[in-house]
């Protein structure tokens, strides 16, 4: 009883601190205070197994894992005030008031007394008595809970799993271009842009191949589909008319037929 009156105010103050502190790391540390105090109360009630589980599993493993995640990821104080769900703050306030009212009404009907039967139950040992009850009367509930926890762990692993993406390197891209060229004849490099070795930079002047002929890859597909592409030798007369000359530069390009209204 003495341990309860000493630790109860500490637990209440730490629990209130969890609600009002601004930093998540401080909240985790205050939660550790609550858990350790609860473990001491288990020990005072002659439940050493729950005392050890509370210290090793909850405080030493789960809570420390939360603390490490907070320290590695980092949570700013401004992030905790951002509502990710609409109406989250109002819903939490209403739920907190309902829970507080329920606790007040429940505690108001509690009668203080001494525990009866602990010596008899723990006569063969607390751990042995707990195992006897857990694996005899409550064995079905224990196994069902175990299966549920294992299923939840597997589901979390499946949901968090991501297929590893293979990063494509420049060598892989070059090898793929050469395979496409060998299989379908696709040009392995970038297409030549219009105006190479041309008299002026315009769409109507295609790129020239080493033999002097025009590269079809540099001619716009729109112009070819509309049928407005004309060969320079075939339009030599019109080229001479517009350019006023008969040199090679005048017959090296592709004339585009002008559209009239």
From TrEMBL:
Recorded GO CC terms: plasma membrane
Function field: NDH-1 shuttles electrons from NADH, via FMN and iron-sulfur (Fe-S) centers, to quinones in the respiratory chain. Couples the redox reaction to proton translocation (for every two electrons transferred, four hydrogen ions are translocated across the cytoplasmic membrane), and thus conserves the redox energy in a proton gradient.
PANTHER family hit by this protein: NADH-QUINONE OXIDOREDUCTASE SUBUNIT J, NADH-UBIQUINONE OXIDOREDUCTASE CHAIN 6
Family membership noted in the UniProt record: Belongs to the complex I subunit 6 family.
Keywords: Cell membrane, Membrane, NAD, Oxidoreductase, Quinone, Transmembrane, Transmembrane helix
Protein name: NADH-quinone oxidoreductase subunit J
One Pfam family linked to the record: Oxidored_q3
Keyword Membrane included in the entry's annotation: yes
Membrane topology value: Multi-pass membrane protein
Transmembrane segments: 6-21, 28-45, 51-73, 93-118, 138-160
């Amino acid at each position: 009883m003495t341990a309860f009156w000493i630790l109860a105010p500490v637990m209440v103050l730490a629990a209130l601190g969890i609600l009002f502190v601004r930093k998540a790391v401080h909240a985790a540390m205050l939660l550790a205070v609550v858990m350790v105090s609860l473990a001491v109360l288990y020990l005072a009630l002659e439940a050493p197994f729950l005392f050890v589980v509370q210290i090793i599993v909850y405080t030493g493993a789960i809570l420390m894992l939360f603390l490490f995640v907070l320290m590695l990821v980092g949570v700013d104080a401004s992030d905790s005030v951002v509502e990710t769900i609409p109406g989250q703050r109002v819903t939490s306030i209403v739920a907190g008031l309902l829970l507080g009212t329920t606790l007040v009404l429940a505690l108001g009907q509690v009668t203080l007394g001494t525990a009866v039967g602990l010596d008899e139950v723990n006569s063969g040992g607390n751990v042995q008595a707990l195992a006897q009850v857990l694996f005899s009367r409550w064995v079905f509930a224990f196994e069902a809970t175990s299966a549920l926890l294992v299923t939840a762990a597997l589901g979390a692993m499946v949901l968090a799993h991501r297929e590893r993406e293979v990063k494509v390197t420049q060598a892989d891209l070059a090898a793929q271009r050469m395979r496409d060229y060998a299989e379908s004849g696709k040009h392995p490099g970038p297409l030549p842009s219009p105006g190479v070795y041309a008299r002026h930079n315009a769409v109507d002047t295609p790129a020239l191949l080493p033999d002097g002929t025009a590269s079809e890859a540099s001619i716009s597909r729109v112009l070819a589909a509309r049928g407005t592409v004309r060969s320079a030798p075939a339009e030599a007369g019109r080229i001479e008319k517009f350019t006023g000359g008969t040199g090679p530069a005048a017959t090296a390009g592709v004339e585009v037929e002008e559209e009239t209204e």
